[in-house]
Amino acid sequence: MLANLIVVFNKKTDGDIGAVFGLGFPPMKGGPFHFMDTYGISNILDVMNNFQSEYGNRFAPTQLLINMASENKKFYS
Hints:
There is one protein chain. The protein is an all-alpha fold. It has one domain (5-70). It contains 5 helices and no strands. It has helices at 5-8, 12-23, 32-39, 41-55, 63-70. It is globular and about 30 Å long.
């Protein structure tokens, strides 16, 4: 879900600000895109893959995250 926010917003900062003020994302984490950059997208994929195995395809990572992890890219770079 967090990765799909990038499609809705024009800028990553819009998604981060919207998630903090609109969805209650913890502000100390800087927003979901900043958090994914800090925590590591490959780490996010590991968690999502574990959740997918346990809870089903609703936790399947998006192709965007898979590509970013394989290319070692970040949202803010």
